[in-house]
TrEMBL record:
<keyword id="KW-0863">Zinc-finger</keyword>
<keyword id="KW-0862">Zinc</keyword>
<keyword id="KW-0479">Metal-binding</keyword>
<dbReference type="InterPro" id="IPR007527">
    <property type="entry name" value="Znf_SWIM"/>
</dbReference>
<dbReference type="GO" id="GO:0008270">
    <property type="term" value="F:zinc ion binding"/>
</dbReference>
<feature type="domain" description="SWIM-type">
    <location>
        <begin position="29"/>
        <end position="78"/>
    </location>
</feature>
<protein>
    <submittedName>
        <fullName>Metal-binding protein</fullName>
    </submittedName>
</protein>
Length: 115
């Protein structure tokens, strides 16, 4: 069961346009990224999972709900309210590598500005 605080945070995140669908222009690969604000991290996610600690603790360990990143993605997908960014496979790989290594992707932000 999702708490009202998580639902509110998810709703605000969708309104702020923090869900990005990253699509590889030269293959069939696509993935969703949740853009972190300020010092918070970016997250790689889909409808059922997220790479954040909250997801691991809440969903996997306690089994009681999703993190607000996944809730935001579900809301965004329901209304088709997310940004879609097409990039080469190399650029998609670089974005994912940066998120994994540093928690944020400057490459993704540069691509979004150029869009």
């Amino acid at each position: 069961m999702e708490d009202s605080r998580s639902l509110k945070k998810a709703e605000i995140s969708v309104k702020q346009g923090r869900i990005v669908k990253l699509v590889s222009s030269d293959s069939f690969f696509s993935i969703f990224v949740f853009l972190g604000k300020d010092k918070s991290k970016d997250h790689i996610l889909d409808e059922d999972s997220c790479d954040c600690k909250s997801f691991v603790f809440r969903k996997i360990y306690r089994g009681d709900g999703f993190c607000y990143h996944v809730l935001a993605l579900k809301m965004a997908m329901e209304k088709e309210n997310y940004r879609t960014l097409r990039a080469s496979s190399k650029e998609v790989f670089e974005v994912l590598l940066e998120i994994h290594a540093y928690g944020k992707s400057l490459k993704l932000r540069k691509l979004l500005v150029r869009q």
